[in-house]
Design a protein that fits this description.
The complex is a heterodimer of chains A (450) and B (480). Chain A has 450 residues and is α+β, with helices and mostly antiparallel strands. Helix content of chain A is 23%, strand content 39%. Chain A folds into 2 domains: 196 residues, PmbA/TldD superfamily (PmbA/TldD fold), CATH 3.30.2290; 232 residues, no CATH class. In chain A, helix 4 packs parallel to helix 5. Chain A starts with 6 loop residues before the first helix and ends with a strand. Chain B is an alpha+beta fold. Chain B folds into 2 domains: 226 residues, PmbA/TldD fold (2-Layer Sandwich), CATH 3.30.2290.10; 246 residues, no CATH class. Chain B is built from 10 helices and 23 strands. In chain B, the strands form 5 sheets. In chain B, strands 1, 2, 3, 4, 5, 6, 7 and 8 form an 8-stranded mixed sheet that branches. In chain B, strands 9-16-17-19-23 form a 5-stranded mixed barrel. A 4-stranded antiparallel sheet of chain B has the order 12-11-10-15. In chain B, helix 1 runs parallel beside helix 2 and helix 3 runs parallel beside helix 5. Chain B is globular, with a radius of gyration of 23 Å. Classes of the chains: A alpha+beta (450), B alpha+beta (480). At the A-B interface, strand 1, strand 2, strand 3, helix 2 and helix 4 of A face strand 2, strand 3, helix 2, helix 3 and strand 5 of B. Strand 2 of chain A pairs parallel with strand 3 of chain B, so a sheet runs across the interface. Bound molecules: zinc ion. Zinc ion (ZN) binds next to loops of chain B.
Chain lengths: 450, 480
């Protein structure tokens, strides 16, 4: 399917489905997506794909028994079969004493509003993506370098209805471009995310990645250890993503495995982190997997662990807690997580941050990050695509990549400055707007050969 | 379906494609998970659709849709052609696929008990029984259990005349527990972490795992870990459980031998590989004991199938023999650039993804060191680490670091002190060069890894690794 169905058609389709349901409560979720992605490597386009998909997911509730089923067929009989399957599964269930109810319409306050979806992004022209890829490849070739990357556009149409009267619908778009530009010994990175493909400045991405690749050649080996660091936005966004599922959701607190000690100063007073799915500065996603309007939640307030995000299930488990509209739809240990995070901007330029460092490292981005001690947000991973030595307030040499093993919470506790400019970068589903940060200490425990 | 396949193949050729293929795929899965005595989720999922891949003017295009109708196949094929023309505007040289392949066949995963024939009620019973056992041990905070069963039906048809039908089935199951105290969270799992154990075949695999029979032990160990000292830092003989050897093979052998990585095709996302083409046939990857094969034919392996998603038959290819690097895993396009034939490792994660080089079963062949207990008995001093908790490796697949669930000190051939939060780190060829004992065939398991990620858009893949417990000397260990 290549068309946008539109609010009336989608809600009608789901309401028709609801009328066939026999469970005490029923929720039907619709997802329609058109995704296109052009990939390049070795300075040419080697993969170029497009996908049109729809999905229907049904949750059926009998008392405190829940079953779910999904299909990607859209005809009326397929939806009815899926409802029947979910109901059949629910009947097989055992009671979940913690389950209270699906969210009702009162979970949504006010009218859902969202920006008009960008048609040029929703129905992106493959030639436009090829032009972006081509610009980066030409710039790489002109500098004797090799470019690889991906230029992606996504258009989604999402809706949730349930038998309690909740009905949410929106259309959204996003576009993402990344590139790694490589020389014989050293590489550079550039990346952008926007709601509109037309706002992706591929020439600027090419400039940034090529510039960094040229400066990255012939790195020196340094000893691993503790360094003062500037983490660029790319590295910060990556760290933040891991924190989102390790400790910013209510379930992780309820299960005693979150780094969030509510009410306690756990990070530098310069650090404020909030989640806001409705901010036009981000990739707008007005409601969660249960159709509940996303509230703005301040997770870290001037370094103090302030709050975590909830879905209906975790909110019902704690007295006095409200559903904040952060259901990820995922089962198991994920639960509610923030996916539209913002770190408050600082007041420094990157140049000022560099100038303030006597000896330290400039880290562009991380690679293959994984939690080593999840409950303390201790992460490990590699630096990649632009790691430099700072000496006496200047970037002097490229250095070979390090492995870090470091608590993200402690790193944010060591923040002494943040950049005033911020960049929108991918979260696990939407986008985070983050600054570059200057940390007094960051632990690198081994190095690699390049 | 042949008629619908021909709609795509004919449309593509009329519009100027020199090659086209279409895949129809239906994925069905059932998932049951239990947490702390209640059924956490019970779901039934299906996804179907088709994808058309074309070469026009020497460049690739691909488009796909969930709507399987004649009109949609025509539209999507035209879209794939249009996308290929855009690809051709940023061009190097025409794609070569090597010799044409024309095969008509049907493959069905052999299974004793059809995975969808076992009632969900019976599956819930198995998990609740294991759950009860896990939580019998005092102090367990979270007990999880899961069973997944999957079937995939695929049809592959190409303009070279292939028409291949496959019906694949698999199952996965596992349990895990978490215990918490003021020092942190401790976790144990069985038979493996991150999704349990997986095999192709029937539900007999889940019965064989006997989840309830291992529930008590993992709970007791999780509780013991809470008060165990942190793993010491040092350099020592490291003995790894076979499930960790499997992951070590995955990260430090399986990924570096992917020829698309070597050729830079994955550079912007997963990275490249240290294993550049001049190393083929002469590079010392590991000690003489190290023999690694890519084997898509090994019975029950999670990476076992009849044909890959380019219609190339499943094969067994030596990758490392007596420690010397022999060959890559390839698809038609990359193999052709080396003047070789594809060794059949090109797979797609569903109808809406293009096939790319993916591990099949990348197996470290068994040695002759017997069982895990035999290896421990043969070790004067060292440490035994069991079951993965964390993994990370650099983008050329050299510097790696793994965290594990539990470790035991080994002294004079015996297990001693239990340690929490163990980890080890190393460089790929040095590490494999230090391999000095590998367990025997009777202690060799083909582990399923259901969460290998690669490509943009991301493609998850189910792959396998034959592995036995093994020992490595001079390894840097530490406690996290
Ligand atoms: Zn992998």
């Amino acid at each position: 399917m290549s068309e946008i169905l539109g609010r009336d058609k989608v809600i009608q389709l789901l309401q028709d489905g609801l009328s066939a349901a026999t469970a005490d409560q029923t929720e039907i979720t619709f997802g329609g997506a058109r995704k296109s992605l052009t990939r390049f490597a070795n300075n040419y386009i080697h993969q170029n794909v497009n996908e049109s998909n729809t999905s229907i997911r049904v949750r059926s509730v009998f008392g405190r028994k829940i079953g779910s089923a999904s299909t990607n067929r859209l005809d009326a009989s397929a939806i009815k079969e899926t409802i029947k399957m979910a109901e059949q599964l629910a009947r097989l269930q055992v009671e979940d004493p913690d389950f209270v109810s699906l969210p009702g319409p009162d979970a949504n306050t006010g009218e859902l509003s969202y920006p008009e979806p960008d048609q040029a992004t929703y129905f992106s022209d493959p030639q436009l993506r090829a032009d972006g890829a081509g610009a980066i490849c030409r710039k790489a070739v002109a500098n004797g370098l090799i470019a690889a990357g991906a230029f992606e556009t996504t258009g989604v149409e999402e809706a949730v209805v349930n038998s309690l009267g909740l009905a949410s619908y929106y259309q959204g778009t996003s576009s993402h471009l990344n590139t790694v530009v490589m020389g014989d010994a050293g590489s550079g990175w550039g990346e952008r995310l926007s709601r509109k493909v037309g706002e992706i400045d591929y020439e600027a991405v090419a400039e940034e990645a090529v510039g960094k690749a040229l400066r990255s050649q012939s790195p020196i080996a340094l000893d691993p250890g503790e360094y003062e660091v500037i983490l660029e936005e790319y590295a910060v966004a990556e760290m933040l993503n891991y924190m989102s599922y390790l400790g910013f959701g209510a379930l992780s607190i309820q299960e005693d495995r979150s780094f969030m000690e509510l009410g306690k100063q756990i990070m530098s007073p310069l650090v404020t982190i909030y989640d806001d799915g409705n901010s036009p500065e981000g990739i707008v996603s007005p409601f969660d997997a249960e159709g509940v309007h996303r509230r703005k939640v301040t997770l870290i307030d001037k370094g103090v662990a302030n709050a975590v995000v909830y879905d209906s299930y975790t909110a019902n488990r704690e007295i006095g807690k409200h559903n904040t509209g952060h259901s990820s739809g995922a089962q198991g240990d994920v639960g509610a997580i923030p996916l539209n995070m913002f770190i408050g901007a600082g007041d420094k330029t990157k140049e000022e941050m560099i100038k303030s460092i006597k000896r330290g490292l400039w880290v562009t981005r991380f690679h293959y990050v994984n939690p080593l001690v999840p409950e303390k947000a201790v992460l490990t991973g590699m630096t990649r695509d632009g790691t430099f030595l700072i000496e006496n307030g200047e970037i002097t040499r490229p250095v070979k990549n390090f492995r870090f093993t470091q608590s993200a919470v402690e790193a944010l506790n060591e923040v002494v400055a943040l950049s005033s400019d911020r960049r929108l970068l991918p979260s696990f589903a939407f986008g985070n707007l983050v600054p570059a940060i200057h940390c007094r200490r960051f632990t690198f425990n081994s190095a690699t050969e390049f | 379906m042949r008629d619908l396949a021909n709609v795509a193949l004919d449309t593509a050729q009329q519009k100027g494609a020199s090659y086209a293929d279409i895949r129809f795929v239906t994925d069905r899965s059932r998932n049951v998970s239990v947490k702390n005595g209640k059924v956490e989720s019970l779901s039934n999922n299906e996804s179907q659709g088709f994808g058309v891949r074309v070469i026009v003017n020497g460049a690739w295009g691909f488009s796909s849709s969930s709507l399987v109708t004649r009109a949609e196949i025509e539209r999507v094929t035209a879209e794939a052609v249009q996308i290929a023309r855009a690809s051709a505007s940023v061009f190097r040289q025409p794609v070569q696929l090597g010799d044409p392949i024309s095969i008509q066949d049907r493959y069905v995963t052999p299974a004793d008990i059809d995975v969808f024939s076992v009632s969900l009620d019976d599956q819930i019973k198995i998990l609740l029984e294991a759950d009860l056992e896990m939580r019998r041990v005092e102090g367990i905070r979270i007990a999880n259990g899961m069973i997944s069963t999957l079937k995939t039906s695929k049809i592959f048809a190409s303009t070279e005349g292939s028409y291949i039908e496959q019906e694949l089935s698999e199952s996965g199951a596992g349990i895990e527990v978490y215990a918490v105290n003021e020092d942190g969270v401790q976790k144990r799992s069985y038979p493996n972490a991150f999704g349990g154990g997986w095999e192709t075949g029937g539900f007999e695999y889940v019965h064989k795992l006997d989840l309830p029979g291992h529930a008590r032990r993992i709970s007791e160990e999780a509780i013991q870990l809470l008060t165990a000292p942190v793993c010491p830092t040092g350099v020592t003989n490291l003995i790894l459980s076979s499930n960790q050897v499997a992951l070590q093979v995955h990260e430090s052998c399986g990924h570096p031998v992917e020829l698309d990585r070597v050729m830079g095709m994955e550079a912007s996302f997963a990275g490249t590989s240290f294993l550049t083409t001049e190393k083929k046939g002469n590079f010392r990857y590991g000690s003489d004991l190290v023999n690694v094969y890519a084997d898509a034919t090994v019975p029950r392996g999670l990476g076992t199938f009849g044909y890959d998603d380019e219609g190339v038959p499943a094969q067994r290819t030596p990758l490392i023999l007596n420690g010397i690097f022999q060959d890559y895993i390839t698809d038609r396009e990359t193999a052709a650039t080396l003047g070789q034939q594809s060794n059949g490792t090109s797979r797609a994660d569903g109808w809406n993804r293009i096939p790319m080089i993916r591990m099949t079963n990348i197996n470290l062949e068994p040695g002759n060191a017997g069982s895990l207990e035999d290896i421990i008995a043969a070790t004067d001093e060292g440490i035994f680490m069991d079951t993965n908790k964390s993994w990370s490796i650099d983008d050329k697949r050299l510097n790696f670091q793994f965290g594990l669930e539990a470790a035991w000190e080994i002294k004079n051939g015996k297990r001693g002190q239990l340690y929490r939060n163990p980890a080890y780190t190393g460089m790929t060829p040095v590490f494999w060069g230090s391999c000095d004992l590998i367990g025997s065939r009777d202690h060799w398991t083909v582990w399923g890894v259901p969460n290998c990620g690669k490509g943009e858009p991301m493609q998850g893949m189910h792959v396998g690794h034959g592995a036995a417990p093994a020992r490595f000397h001079n390894i840097k260990i530490f406690g996290a």
